């Protein structure tokens, strides 16, 4: 089968799955089987695209204005993002089968339909040939996930969903769209290009302001102060939190930041422009402030939300350092963070379903009743921290090495390294103390009848936590993709 045909299948298969899920709504077992099968088929298609030896494929769907197309293209960065999302769709669906039933969630069919639609948006973002196409589906992803955030239907859920929609849509309209218009006026095109499209088309003095507008507009990347949508969205069920934090939404944000840095501006343009290095202060502040806030949160999902905000800024930081080592680290961290963070959210949901507990202070001794859950949590936490023998170590290694190789002011290079080291210490405090207390403190009498979560939840947790271990010993899949993307591969 040709690359173009496979690309079209990757774009349409999740939508076909959404239709079939709606048609099987009256038969839950069949509905969930359809979701798992669709996710597995999509993963197989993406694996086949990964195996293609550099074949070019472009699909033009529409040309609303001459020179501006809704188009998709096969590229290595898109394949990497699609591999992460499609593989995690499988385990999230498996997890949802146990969680949604055990927690007696309503509107389960709507959840599976909108999840499939969200994955379709992710595929469109991953393979977008130009910035206009990416922007359109970036916005559709926001709208499509809004009902998932409001899934519970409570006043709190609706309020959280409104804040989610207001911040994401508002920042896109106020900043992202104007940045795209300015880019088109300056460059005459929005198509992604390996060396960027602004080289020679914009005065160096205006590069930093335009890049700042892009960063503010791409608020799915969780940059402070436009981060509040993420904690607000924690009112959603745990499988939705997994979608937001690991599979689709925040990853679409940092993916877009990297695409803009690499293929709209180009690393050389940013490095040679005036004052762009001071933009690093934004993700640096976000990393530390979000970590400090996470330490104060007793609610586990809120703590994990602020952890995500901090970890996303690692990726933005690596992108803005614009040396090859840091860019590889940023790209690699998209994958390593995804597998670790989804493990943590699965564990949080399992604790809620099995023990009906949401606060970290309630977890003392609970590992004696839920050993698999807290073992998986410990693995995910240590991977995010960057402890050796887990995949997260590699992305942290490249980011720290990139900070050491930073070509800007010496004081800023030192500040970058200190930020990464201090953040790691804070990660240890607010993440690793959770499984330590669960394993080594005495169990409260009120938790004596607790058992593990349903088996689909456990299986879904074990798979990404095992991946965290696997990617330490075999990081080549994502490492080679990251190096080819940064070092001269396709945009």
TrEMBL record:
Where is it located? Cell membrane; Membrane
GO cellular component labels: plasma membrane
Q: Which residues cross the membrane?
A: 34-50, 80-99, 111-128, 134-152, 164-185, 205-223, 243-266, 278-300, 312-332, 338-358, 370-391, 411-432, 453-473
Which keywords has UniProt assigned to this entry? Cell membrane, Membrane, Transmembrane, Transmembrane helix
Give membrane topology per the record: Multi-pass membrane protein
Q: Which InterPro entries match?
A: CPA3_Na-H_Antiporter_D (IPR050586), ND/Mrp_TM (IPR001750)
Domain (NADH:quinone oxidoreductase/Mrp antiporter transmembrane): give its ranges: 128-416
**Which Pfam families does the entry mention?**
Proton_antipo_M
The record's similarity note reads: Belongs to the CPA3 antiporters (TC 2.A.63) subunit D family.
Query: Can you name this protein?
Result: Monovalent cation/H+ antiporter subunit D family protein
Species of the source: Salinimonas marina
């Amino acid at each position: 089968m040709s690359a173009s045909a496979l690309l079209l299948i990757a774009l349409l298969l999740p939508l076909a799955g959404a239709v079939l899920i709606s048609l099987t709504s009256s038969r839950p077992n069949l509905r969930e089987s359809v979701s798992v099968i669709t996710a597995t088929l999509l993963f197989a298609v993406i694996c086949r695209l990964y195996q293609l030896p550099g074949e070019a494929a472009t699909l033009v769907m529409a040309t609303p204005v001459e020179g501006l197309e809704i188009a998709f293209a096969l590229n290595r960065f898109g394949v990497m993002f699609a591999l992460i999302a499609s593989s995690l769709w499988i385990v999230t669906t498996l997890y949802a089968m146990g969680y949604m039933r055990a927690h007696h969630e309503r509107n389960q069919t709507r959840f599976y339909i909108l999840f499939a639609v969200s994955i379709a948006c992710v595929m469109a973002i991953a393979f977008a040939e130009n910035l206009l196409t990416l922007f359109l589906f970036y916005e559709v992803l926001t709208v499509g996930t809004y009902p998932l955030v409001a899934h519970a239907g409570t006043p709190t859920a609706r309020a959280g969903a409104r804040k989610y929609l207001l911040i994401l849509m508002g920042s896109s309209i106020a900043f992202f769209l104007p940045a795209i218009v300015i880019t088109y006026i300056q460059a005459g095109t929005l198509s992604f290009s390996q060396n960027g499209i602004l080289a020679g088309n914009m005065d160096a003095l205006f590069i930093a302001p335009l890049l700042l507008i892009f960063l503010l507009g791409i608020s799915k990347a969780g940059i402070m102060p436009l981060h509040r949508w993420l904690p607000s969205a924690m009112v959603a069920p745990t499988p939705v939190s997994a979608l937001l934090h690991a599979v689709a939404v925040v990853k679409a944000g940092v993916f877009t930041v990297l695409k803009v840095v690499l293929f709209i501006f180009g690393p050389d343009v940013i490095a040679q422009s005036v004052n762009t290095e001071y933009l690093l202060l934004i993700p640096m502040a976000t990393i530390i402030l979000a970590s400090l806030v996470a330490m104060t949160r007793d609610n586990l999902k809120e703590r994990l939300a602020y952890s995500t905000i901090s970890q996303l800024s690692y990726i933005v930081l690596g992108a803005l350092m614009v040396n090859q080592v840091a860019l590889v680290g940023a790209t690699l961290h998209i994958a390593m963070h995804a597998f670790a963070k989804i493990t943590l959210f699965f564990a949080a949901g399992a604790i809620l379903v099995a023990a009906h507990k949401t606060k970290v202070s309630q977890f003392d001794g609970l590992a004696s009743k839920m050993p698999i859950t807290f073992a998986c949590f410990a693995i995910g936490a240590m991977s995010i921290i960057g402890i050796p023998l887990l995949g997260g170590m590699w992305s942290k290694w490249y980011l720290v090495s990139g900070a050491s190789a930073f070509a800007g002011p010496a004081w800023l290079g030192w500040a970058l390294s200190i930020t990464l080291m201090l953040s790691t210490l804070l990660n240890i405090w607010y993440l690793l103390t959770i499984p330590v207390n669960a394993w080594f403190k005495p169990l409260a009498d009120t938790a004596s009848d607790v058992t593990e979560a349903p088996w689909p939840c456990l299986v879904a947790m074990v798979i990404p936590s095992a991946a965290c271990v696997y990617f330490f010993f075999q990081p080549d899949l994502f490492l080679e993709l990251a190096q080819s993307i940064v070092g001269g591969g396709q945009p």
